[in-house]
Amino acid sequence: MGAAIILLLFVINRSWSQDVIEANGPGNTYEELTAFLAPGYNPIEVPDCNHASFGNHIDEVYDTSINGYAFRFFIHVTPDNDRCILEIDDRQRNEIKTYHPSPSILKGVQGENVIYKWAFKLPAGFQSSPKFTHIHQLKSVGGDFQSMPMYTLTTRKGLPDKLELRYAETTSQITLYETPLSPFLNNWVEVTEKINYSTSGFYSLSIVDMDTNNQLFYYDNSGVDEPKTNWRPGAEFVRPKWGIYRSLVYAEDLRNEEVLFSYFSVDEVNSLNTNNVKNRTVVLYPNPTDGILYINSQDYNYAKVYNLNGKIILSTSNYEINISNFKGGLYIIKFFDNLGKLTSIQKVMKTN
User: Fold this and answer.
1) Which helix (H) or strand (E) is 269 found in, with range?
2) Closest CA to 243 of 47, 25, 61
3) Residues 127 and 218 both lie in one domain
4) Which of 3, 37, 58, 95: disulfide with 43, CB 3.0–4.6 Å?
């Protein structure tokens, strides 16, 4: 990979195997992102030229919940568009990317093992399109299918709104895993995405609550029937993208948004640890609650609710837990699988 590059002005750590950029405070944000993603080129896809009165659509802001700075991505229902291309009026984007001029470490090539990590926060009340609201993509460059991302992390309006992991081997997408969006709102989470770029490669994506360390989302393709194609015919490389890219087909469902990212990391490794990688996920929402708790999990069989004295006050195998008659306060819920093995312990706050 060549010698290490040290950039004193920017918070970028670059070695033979890993690149990391962290937000470090207001000023020079575009220059910092460009120096990381594609020095001397233009890896930032912002709607600035169509909304010049607003100014830069990516800046850096201090966030007290992480005691540090974050990159703030703005998107406005109007007049923001897609890369200032006037002919495109059904979608809009504010994204950063790697592409041809990017350093080789930021471009995934056939046979490589790569771990992508980043932390982000969606605001309270975040409004998703019923079509798509992409937060992250892995896209092939070259070949017949480069217009369709291989993997996409997207939010979607529904009952309830959901966070979805989408996959396309060729030109059509399927949903690999989905979960309610509410636990992710106004909450810092950290994503770890692992991929072996091959025609029969491993893939996983984990999202962890940075405050509680609870795993909110997990998928891997180790199952027999899960798709394994992580390299497309004719591809030159695969590039990551982050930001907010959404449909305007139902613009009435949207509002102006600010999405925060604290860092981005790309790590080339010799091998991926695929053994026991799954922290079995139990998503419990809403929390706090004044009544009904909903459970989303692939491994859930039954749960026990304890008070702070350690007494079991409810046992249930339902996917809805009614605690509306409980006194206000903190409770502990333990979740078990069909073998009776404890899979998760979570705290829940019952409001009065």
Assistant:
1) strand 257-269
2) 47
3) yes
4) 37
User: What is the rounded distance in angstroms from the CA atom of residue 148 to the CA atom of residue 74?
Assistant: 24
Host domain of residue 103:
6-269
Place of tokens 């930001």: 243
pLDDT tens digits for range 53-107: 999 999 999 999 999 999 999 999 999 999 988 889 999 999 999 999 999 999 9
Q: Which residue is it, tokens 């490794």?
A: 269
Answer whether 255's CB lies under 8 Å from 80's CB. no
Q: Tell me: do 183 and 295 sit in the same domain.
A: no
Number of structural domains the chain divides into = 2
Residues 179 and 135 in one domain: yes
- The pLDDT tens digits for 198-218 are 999 999 999 999 988 888 999
- Asked, for residue 1, whether it belongs to a domain, the answer is no
pTM: 0.80
Tokens 């859930």 sit at which residue?
A: 300
Q: How many CB atoms lie within 10 A of CB 344?
A: 22
